[in-house]
Write a structure and sequence with these properties.
The chain is mostly helical. The protein is 40% helix and 4% strand. It contains ten helices and five strands. The radius of gyration is 18 Å and the shape is globular. It binds 20-OXO-protoporphyrin IX containing ZN(II) (ZEM).
């Protein structure tokens, strides 16, 4: 892809970047009335997550540092279908700020999206660099398979180093965006406000009766009342698994608790496997007006 041709940033070139300006420029890229529900925010969050969620605690491979998601074969892994749209949207900023690394750019885009769509402030550090190549791509299958249940979800997130509470907090990001039949094969948004960061993933999961969708596509659920909203089989595990359900109940009734736990878990996700310089500053960006 194009992304490979831009100047690679070296280990400490991030020191030359004004990240307040990058934050503002990413925020300016969010809105587009012709894209999906009017915002690139959700797909930026997904890009940040898929850049990071390949991390393996045992081998210390994967994660956002080095941004192998931009290289084939990882860019072409089934789980990453559609993320080329997010990377292409951000590419002009790599040209404008050649000293930002792709790993910093993709993770910061997720931070900006969460904040600007109404979510919590997310602590974020720069310092990832572009030192990896296509040879460092992670094997296919490290990201969760939506068709599976609680056991698989735990295997995948425990491999990254998360516990049950953190896993439930993270899945709350499914308040944002939608499934695309052209990408994952699944179809529809999880709720009526897919461009606002809320605790609605949890409230919708509990408040609706979910029935199998009648169609030729992959097995998924729709809400019985309107048929407008969806749940993946993996999402449904958060309702049926008692250990997950405990936290779903909590976050559905306590949005502040969800925001507080989400932001911690999201920062942890974006930092998996990254060796930050000791003096890398921690940013807490102010959400724009
Ligand atoms: Zn998602 N996710 N995800 N996720 N995700 C999709 C979309 C989005 C799973 C999954 O299979 C899918 C987390 C965890 C898990 C977002 C954020 C986060 C889609 C639809 C699928 C199939 C893709 C498409 O068709 O475009 C599974 C099985 C997960 C764990 C069990 C975590 C953790 C996330 C962030 C913290 C977001 C924001 C979207 C919406 C993307 C968009 O383009 O609208």
């Amino acid at each position: 892809s194009d992304s490979n041709s831009a100047t690679a940033s070296s280990a400490d070139s991030w020191r030359k970047v004004n990240f307040y300006n990058v934050y503002k420029d990413i925020a300016d890229l969010l809105e587009d009335e012709n894209y999906d529900d009017g915002s690139y925010g959700p797909v930026f969050v997904r890009l940040a997550w898929h850049s990071s969620g390949t991390f393996d605690t045992k081998t210390k491979t994967g994660g956002s540092d080095g941004a192998t998601i931009r290289f084939a074969p990882e860019s072409g892994h089934g789980a990453n279908a559609g993320l080329d749209a997010a990377r292409a949207r951000l590419e002009p900023l790599k040209k404008k700020y050649p000293n930002i690394s792709y790993g910093d750019l993709y993770t910061l885009a997720g931070v900006v999206a969460v904040q600007e769509l109404g979510g919590p402030t997310v602590r974020w550090r720069p310092g990832r660099s572009d030192y990896k190549t296509a040879a460092d791509c992670t094997p296919d299958g490290r990201l969760p398979d939506a068709a599976q249940g609680a056991g698989h979800v735990r295997d995948v997130f425990y491999r990254m180093g998360f516990n049950d509470q953190e896993i439930v907090a993270l899945i709350g990001a499914h308040a944002l965006g939608r499934c695309h039949s052209t990408r994952s094969g699944y179809e529809g948004p999880w709720n009526a406000s897919p461009t606002v960061f809320t605790n609605f993933f949890f409230t919708e999961l509990l408040d609706n009766t979910w029935v199998p969708k009648k169609w030729n596509g992959p097995f998924q659920y729709v809400d019985k009342n309107s048929g407008a909203f969806m749940m993946l089989p993996a999402d449904m595990a958060f309702k049926t698994d008692p250990q997950f359900r405990k936290y779903v109940d909590k976050y559905a009734t306590d949005q502040d608790a969800f925001f507080a736990d989400f932001t911690k878990a999201f920062t942890k996700l974006l930092e998996l496997g990254v060796k930050f310089p000791e003096d890398a500053p921690v940013y807490e960006f102010k959400t724009l007006e």
